[in-house]
From TrEMBL, chain A:
Domain P-type ATPase C-terminal: 908-1158
Places the protein is found: Membrane
EC code(s) of this entry: 7.6.2.1
PANTHER family the record matches: PHOSPHOLIPID-TRANSPORTING ATPASE, PROBABLE PHOSPHOLIPID-TRANSPORTING ATPASE
Catalytic activity field: ATP + H2O + phospholipidSide 1 = ADP + phosphate + phospholipidSide 2
Pfam families: Cation_ATPase (PF13246), PhoLip_ATPase_C (PF16212), PhoLip_ATPase_N (PF16209)
GO biological process: phospholipid translocation
All residue ranges annotated as the P-type ATPase N-terminal domain in the record: 43-110
Entry binding sites for Mg(2+): 425, 427, 882, 886
Name under which the protein is recorded: Phospholipid-transporting ATPase
From TrEMBL, chain B:
Name by which UniProt lists this protein: ALA-interacting subunit
Keywords, sorted A to Z: Membrane, Transmembrane, Transmembrane helix
UniProt topology in membrane: Multi-pass membrane protein
PANTHER family: CDC50, ISOFORM A, CELL CYCLE CONTROL PROTEIN 50
Domain of life: Eukaryota
Region (Disordered): 150-170
Primary localisation category: membrane
InterPro entries hit by this protein: CDC50/LEM3_fam
Length: 1227, 361
């Protein structure tokens, strides 16, 4: 019994990831009531009414994630708006426009500001409303609460109070942090899934106090009461300190009795618990951090441009006010027509300084047009549209989950086009966290005919390449042809093709979870006919018995499913079940197997007594069970990493070593995870002798208990006999290798950060092609993981530093340009590597490596690594993950992407974008990112261009008005300029522009580099656009002024007044900027046509209609177009001349650039334009394959390697070997 | 396509119903477009024309511009050359020799004789109508203080007579009554007058002062019931006076004057001479030199000009057209040459970045 207890405890402690963190002090402290700061919480169980008054009143279970409420919305949202510098500037300008210094009417200043700010605030309000709706949904979830008298009833979550007793049923979330009282199991165990908290998918066991076990039905809570004294709310998920006073006894509490909000009850019918922490006090809420608001690099740069424009604004305003002061002082006294003696402060010749200062304000307002007020709001609108396009992209719609991609913030759309490094989680992101039993090798024979994904894709690629090379008449294909002639049975291509097609069709989905094995020799009991059925039997039994899973009967289907610690184990059990060895029951001491032999209906139920269980640890890399079968035979069954097992084989156990090793290598090559299985028969006395040692070791309480246990276990696990090996495929998510490949071709670096073991991570690295054979692996680990004492820390650190510098040296000295390095580092080493003095060495090394895998990393380390990459390389990083453990990194990265679809939404909630499968990342980045980047970049450049072109004409004109601050344009023109007349075309540019179609983006991943290299928003281009604006403003102004100098402008003899000149100038500006944007666009749908040409039409229409309004409103504009300008040929010819003269340099520039220095998208546009891709498909395909970045990782690199190897073989042998090899299947 | 459309229709509901999946972006902006989901729109696959600048297009664009611009330029130039313009500067000439050193005093002295006669020679035959302009220089009619100092409402209707707040400092008469028309612009009304006669027979040439203002000004902006009041009543006289018995809608000189000019050098229409003038004729102009430009050293000029379809004499437009046209012609030829000398086959993949540069493979 004692032994069983210990075993159980051992087992449990393994299941607890935080067992080591459990404060031991608490045990020794005993039931002393906790006191002092930080431990002040008192909970009266089952007496929630006691918590309604102050000292004991805790916060309610209502949660709110909204930024505003009805009262605070206006002040807070306004504050947010006017924190933007540009908005503040315009606010000040609007206030000043109410005074005499303003050159404009107040309305023309206030209206656009109100529009812009109002729109942004409306967006804020809507977003916050959605958050509120989300909160309400959570708050109104129902939970079963004790209402008194042993009656339970449903209450919404928000009504739950501290002290309430709640009953949570299977697969429900815990509404608050609870103290577990009792469960549906007699021993007070329940299983909890904490995926929302830490991203771990395996179940955790929680166990109630023994004293509360009798509280097992509703009735028993009638008179239940108790007092919990515990720590104050804190964010630490894995600690809890408290005491429970029940029936005059005080019991200590530890984290294993605490059920945390947002985790889920699994495998347990129901539990009862007392609410300890509610709402914001709960650990998960304490853990939630405000997601940082992120801004894209482009936007940050845009701020810089705004500062430049601001300096320009201040500069010309100063020039203007100095000029004004000088004119006032020296010339104004002579201007008799202005009554210089009868002036006010603004025009005081006696005090030009004062007037100059007042004029500075006027000028600052006047030239405010240099800073586009509508820029922010236009960008906001554009981004909302872009986000909608992302959301609605049918190609990112996951049919299985029904989820679309979601742009959860629109701030970062363009940042998607500039990503340099992707930091990815593994479990649930790259993989489905599901293992499929694919192949096995038993007693030297390889079984399993299905191909892994790698094999399939390699075969496909080879087939394509061969075909291509064939047409290109390259050596190999010539050889192949001759080979074909020799071998009249047909070429290898045909066979390859058939491999692909047939495999692809029937390999879609395994019917059984975890089992994707096919081999008629083993299935359906046929294994009995195999020669070595002894070994087969043993193999299956090891699969079924050597495990720690819990079987669970699915009542609907009658099938047994397994809750296993690792998905590998689940797949083994599924395989064993399919082979006819169904594990169906586990008791404290036994495992029950239902064995089904060839004859149908013949089931033999066998019980295997578990004598000992030797745990799997990452250090041991093996697990063993010692069982006694019904015949009394004691067996040690062992499974573990092949190298470990092979070291421990007995002499006669090595019969199959050679063949098995070969098979294992084959499996490894195609990305499968392998384990070797072995066994050993034990005599009774031999066993009991060992067991005594083992028990002794187990019960000892010395510090080296672990080491002792390990040593004892080591004694047992030797002289094994090899049975075989398994190969499971860690099921990657659909399309992951292809996606990684494409992303690598687009020039992105991919880092994998995973909490998994190093071996697992490496395996995954192989299967998703981040690692490949022939890559040089740099593994950085802490040599002696046991030693974590203070004094040796320094030594460990130095050791890590040495490893890093050595590796860096090695990478640096590498001569071969094709050599690829992979860096693999574990969490412990990472703690040292991330310290300030070392992180740069680490980063330098990591950047030099083709792929980086960090394993065993904590969520915090993930965030730290992300920060290191982000800040160290100054490049855009993207973090992608699915679990709560990825939240830190998602928030830290420049862009956080969450994988939705699985249950946990924590990552998605923290993310900026969510997609339902990793493979959609390709489209998100390569298509949407590319587009959005170009759109926003072009849009901003154009915005500055148009405002400079417009704003500077104001300045030039002012110089001609003695710097008096008079504008040549009507206030309404200016008001409409930014808000209506030029905004829609630029918005349509930002929303609809496509340099190339989405297919081309995907076909030519290299185009993505235009974003990472920032070709469209570099200073050269920005300044070019500004220069263009300057040129346009000069041309517009000078031509207009000279043409309308002083002579009559029409046959009627009238000369042009200010209104006519201003209107002509403004007409020119409208035409120029709209033609300019038409030249900038390369993609015209009817919408662009409508907006661009419509804007020009709108201007003339406006002019006409405004001129028809009574003159008290329209002033000088009254009938201006109809009477004065319209009939004058000079008006129209000026517009034509100015428009052509303004766009001429740009037209020359783009013609010249396309002619002599075409960019990639230009060429591709041309190819598409001339339909060359259809005519010359070979060229098209060739260019597509070339349009990859030189990659060292990814599928292609791997396939390349494989092809190289193949070609070598091809030249040596006959063509038949080709097919065999690439199928890599046993024959 | 049908199927895709349906799928799109379903999506938003799918999102809504997913309890975990809210908090996405506002869709109010697109609500209009959403009402009829267009798969091509949401999938960004709307049919589009994607013009590219092929050599053919580039050359023909420049060619077309050249072909259009050069004739326009020639036409403008011819139009401008048709115009006969005679300019006579008189502000110094018309100061009596005695007053040459105190021009300002002279001009401000209302008792002094301001009459002055100048001659203008007609170089070419001028066909009627011949427009008479006065041209002022260094006169900031576009100054903000000046431009603002007027009241459109007051000008329009007698009801708004007292709407003079914008007219400061020339808004109220010394007695407190509103000045009509108020403001600096009206106050500084130009008041030199000209009368013309042919030198050869001393036959006077009638100057038609009707129809020099815009029709819209006469009909709508200057009221028929608004009569000058308190005008130039103050101690300081800024310029011309107005006949108080004539409504503003008939005061065309005022209308012309109140259309403020864009530049400090400007011409304004004075009247029309509706007879042809022969070449080499000399015209005597008798003028009243009343207006004070002497305090700010402003020039005064008298201009006689005919017009053509492009208005008065200004070669610039034609020259500019010709220049741009020529540049485009040169560019068209240049690009043609370039395309021949160094042709790049369009869509030639060898120009793709991965096929050139150091990293090619």
């Amino acid at each position: 019994m004692a032994r069983g207890r210990i075993r159980e405890r051992l087992r449990r402690s393994h299941l607890h990831p935080f067992s080591c963190l459990r404060p031991n002090a608490n045990d020794s402290e005993g039931p002393n009531p906790l006191q002092g700061p930080g431990f002040s919480r008192i909970v009266h169980c089952n007496q929630p009414h006691k918590h309604q008054k102050k000292p004991l009143k805790y916060c309610s279970n209502y949660i709110s994630t909204t930024k505003y409420n009805i009262v605070t919305f206006l002040p807070k949202a306004l504050y947010e708006q006017f924190r933007r510098f540009a908005n503040l500037y315009f606010l000040v300008a609007a206030v000043l426009s109410l005074t005499a210094v303003s050159p404009f009417s107040p309305l023309s200043m206030i209206l656009p500001l109100a529009f812009v700010v109002g729109l942004s605030m409306a967006k804020e309000a809507l977003e916050d409303w959605r958050r509120f709706a989300q909160d309400m949904k959570v708050n109104s979830r129902k939970a079963s609460v004790h209402k008194g008298g042993g009656v339970f009833g449903y209450k919404p979550w928000q009504k739950i109070q501290v002290g309430d007793v709640v009953k949570v049923e299977k697969d429900q979330f815990f509404p608050a942090d609870l103290l577990l009282l009792s469960t549906s199991y007699d021993d007070g165990i329940c299983y909890v899934e904490t995926m929302n908290l830490d991203g771990e998918t395996n179940l955790k066991v929680k166990r109630s106090l023994d004293v509360t076990l009798p509280l097992e039905d509703d009735e028993s809570f009638k008179n239940f009461s108790g007092i919990i004294k515990c720590e104050d709310p804190n964010p630490s998920l894995y600690t809890f300190v408290g005491t429970f006073e029940y029936e005059r006894q005080v019991y200590p509490l530890d984290p294993s009795q605490i059920l945390l909000r947002d985790s889920k009850l699994r495998n347990t019918a129901y539990v009862y618990g007392v609410v300890i922490f509610t709402g914001f006090d709960s650990k998960v809420m304490q853990n939630s951090t405000k997601s940082p608001s992120k801004r894209s690099k482009i936007e940050k740069k845009m701020d810089k441009i705004i500062y430049i424009l601001l300096s320009l604004l201040v500069l010309i305003s100063s020039i203007s006010s100095i000029g004004f002061a000088v004119k006032i002082k020296f010339q104004m006294p002579k201007w008799s027509y202005m009554q210089p003696l009868n002036t006010d402060n603004l025009y005081d010749p006696d005090n030009p300084g004062k007037s100059g200062v007042a004029h500075l304000i006027t000028a600052l307002i006047l030239y405010g047009y240099l800073i586009p007020i509508s820029l922010y709001v236009s960008i906001e609108i554009v981004k909302v549209f872009q986000a909608r396009f992302i959301n609605q992209d049918i190609h990112m719609y996951d049919e299985e989950t029904g989820n679309t991609a979601q742009a959860r913030t629109s701030n970062l759309n363009e940042e998607l086009g500039q990503v340099e490094t992707i930091l990815s989680d593994k479990t649930g992101t790259l993989t489905c966290n599901q293992m499929d039993f694919l192949k096995c090798s038993i007693a030297g024979t390889a079984y399993g005919v299905r191909s892994s994904e790698i094999e399939l894709a390699a075969a496909k690629q080879i087939a394509m390449d061969l075909e291509e090379q064939d047409t290109q008449n390259i050596n190999v294909s010539r050889y192949m042809k001759s080979a074909n002639k020799e071998d009249s049975r047909g070429g290898p291509e045909i066979e390859l093709e058939s491999v692909i097609t047939s495999k692809c069709e029937n390999d879609q989905k395994p019917a059984i979870k975890g089992f994707n094995f096919e081999d008629s020799r083993l299935m359906h009991g046929h294994w009995l006919n195999e020669p070595n059925q002894e070994s087969l039997l043993l193999f299956f039994r090891i699969l079924a018995i050597c495990q720690t899973a819990v079987p669970e009967l699915n009542e609907e289907s009658g099938m047994i499913t397994y809750e296993a610690e690792s998905p590998d184990e689940a797949s083994f059990l599924a395989a064993a079940r399919e082979f006819g060895f169904e594990f169906y029951k586990r008791t404290q001491s036994s495992v029950f197997i239902r064995e089904k032999y060839a004859h149908p209906g013949q089931l033999i139920e066998r019980e295997f007594k578990i004598l000992n269980l030797l745990e799997f640890t990452s250090k041991r890399k093996r697990m063993s069970v010692i069982v006694q079968d019904e015949d009394g035979q004691i067996l040690l069954l062992c499974k573990g990493a092949d190298s470990i097992i092979f070291d421990r084989l007995s002499k006669n156990g090595r019969i199959h070593e050679e063949t098995t090793t070969k098979h294992l290598n084959d499996y490894g090559e195609v990305g499968l995870r392998t384990l070797a299985l072995a066994y050993k028969k034990l005599d009774e006395p031999e066993y009991s002798a060992w067991n005594n040692e083992f028990v002794k070791a187990k019960t000892s309480f010395s510090t080296d208990r672990e080491a002792m246990l390990e040593r004892v276990a080591d004694m047992m696990e030797k002289d094994l006999i090899l049975v075989g090996a398994t190969a499971v495929e860690d099921k990657l998510q659909k399309g992951v290798p292809q996606c990684i490949d494409k992303l690598a071709q687009a020039g992105l670096k991919i880092w994998v950060l995973t909490g998994d073991k190093m071996e697992t991570a490496i395996n995954i690295g192989y299967s998703c092609s981040l690692l490949r054979q022939g890559m040089k692996r740099i593994c950085i680990t802490v040599m002696n993981s046991d030693v974590v004492a203070q004094d040796s820390k320094q030594a460990a650190k130095e050791n890590i530093l040495m490893q890093i510098t050595n590796s860096s040296q090695m990478v640096k000295l590498e001569k071969d340009p094709h050599a690829a390095y992979a860096l693999i580092i574990d969490g412990k080493s990472l703690t040292f590597a991330l310290e300030d003095d070392m992180k740069h060495h680490f980063l330098a090394l990591a950047v030099g490596c083709a792929s980086v895998i960090c394993c065993r990393v904590s969520p915090k380390q993930k965030a730290l690594v992300t920060r290191l990459v982000k800040e160290g390389t100054k490049k855009t990083t993207l973090a992608i993950g699915d679990g709560a453990n990825d939240v830190g990194m998602i928030q830290e990265a420049d862009i956080g992407v969450g994988i939705s679809g699985v249950e946990g939404m924590q990552a998605v909630m923290a993310s900026d974008f969510s997609i339902s499968q990793f493979r959609f990342l390709e489209r998100l980045l390569v298509v949407h990112g590319h587009w959005c980047y170009k759109r926003i970049a072009q849009m901003i450049c154009y915005f500055f261009y148009k405002n400079i072109a417009f704003g500077l004409t104001l300045f030039y004109f002012e110089a001609f008005t003695a710097f008096s601050g008079q504008s040549v344009y009507n206030d309404w023109y200016m008001l409409l300029f930014n808000v209506i007349l030029t905004s829609l075309p630029v918005i349509s540019l930002g929303v609809f522009e496509q340099d190339v179609s989405s297919e081309v983006c995907l076909q030519f991943p290299a185009l993505y580099q235009q974003g990472t290299k920032n070709l469209f928003f570099d200073w050269y281009r920005i300044l070019g656009w500004m220069g263009n604006g300057l040129y346009s403003s000069l041309v517009i102004f000078i031509l207009n002024i000279v043409i309308f100098y002083n002579q009559a402008f029409r046959a009627g003899g009238q000369t042009a007044d200010m209104a006519a000149v201003g209107t002509t100038m403004f007409s020119c500006i409208i035409c120029v900027v709209n033609f300019q944007i038409a030249l900038t666009m390369s993609h015209f749908t009817w919408i662009q046509h409508l907006f661009v040409w419509g804007s020009i039409a709108t201007w003339f229409l406006f002019l006409l209609l405004y001129g028809l309004m009574p003159p008290t409103y329209s002033g000088y504009v009254y009938k201006l177009l109809a009477e004065a300008l319209g009939p004058a040929p000079i008006y129209w010819s000026t517009i034509l001349l100015v428009t052509v003269a303004c766009i001429l340099p740009y037209l020359v520039h783009i013609s010249f650039q396309r002619c002599f220095n075409p960019m990639d998208h230009h060429i591709i546009q041309e190819i598409k334009y001339y339909k060359k891709d259809v005519e010359d498909q070979r060229m098209w395909r060739r260019e597509r394959s070339k349009a990859r970045q030189e990659t060292k990782i990814g599928f292609s690199a791997r396939v390349d390697a494989k092809i190289r190897q193949l070609k070598g073989k091809l030249q040596k042998k006959s063509s038949t070997s080709v097919s065999q090899n690439c199928m890599a299947s046993p024959s | 396509m049908e199927a895709v459309g349906q799928a799109i229709l379903v999506l938003p509901e799918g999102i809504q119903s997913d309890p975990n999946c809210s908090g996405y972006l506002p869709d109010c902006f697109i609500a209009v477009l959403q009402s009829k989901p267009d798969s091509k729109f949401t999938q960004q696959e709307l049919p589009a024309c994607k013009p590219i600048l092929t050599p053919k297009w580039v050359v023909s664009a420049f060619m077309i511009i050249a072909i259009v611009f050069i004739p326009i330029g020639i036409a403008c130039l011819l139009g401008s050359r048709d115009v006969v313009e005679v300019v006579e500067r008189y502000e110094t000439k018309c100061i009596p020799a005695a007053n040459i050193n105190n021009k300002v005093q002279y001009i401000q002295n209302s008792d002094a004789n301001k009459n002055c006669t100048i001659q203008m020679k007609i170089p070419k035959r001028m066909k009627k109508p011949i427009y008479v302009y006065y041209q002022l220089d260094n006169f900031y009619q576009n100054h903000r203080r000046y431009v603002k100092s007027r009241s459109d409402k007051q000008l329009k209707s007698s009801k708004n007579e007292n709407d003079t707040s914008s007219c400061k400092p020339e808004n109220l008469a010394t007695g407190g009554g509103a000045i009509v028309p108020c403001g600096l612009i009206a106050w500084s009304l130009f008041n030199d007058t000209y009368s013309f006669s042919l030198q050869k027979n001393n036959q006077s040439l009638a100057v038609n002062k009707k129809g020099i203002a815009w029709k819209s000004d006469k009909q709508k902006r200057f009221g028929k019931d608004v009569y000058p009041k308190n005008f130039q009543g103050g101690g300081l006289k800024g310029g011309g006076d107005l006949n108080v018995s004539v409504p503003l809608s008939e005061q065309e000189d005022l209308m012309v004057w109140m259309r403020t000019a864009a530049l400090p050098t400007f011409r304004k229409l004075y009247g029309k001479i509706e007879v042809d003038l022969e070449a080499n004729e000399t015209i005597n102009v008798t003028l009243q030199n009343n207006y004070n430009t002497y305090s700010f050293n402003g020039k005064k000029k008298l201009v006689l000009s005919t017009t053509s379809w492009i208005g008065g004499r200004n070669d610039f437009l034609g020259i500019a057209y010709l220049t741009v046209g020529m540049i485009c012609l040169a560019l068209a030829i240049g690009f043609t040459v370039v395309y021949f000398v160094k042709p790049r086959r369009l869509g030639d993949p060898t120009f793709l970045s991965w096929n050139r540069g150091p990293g090619s493979h």
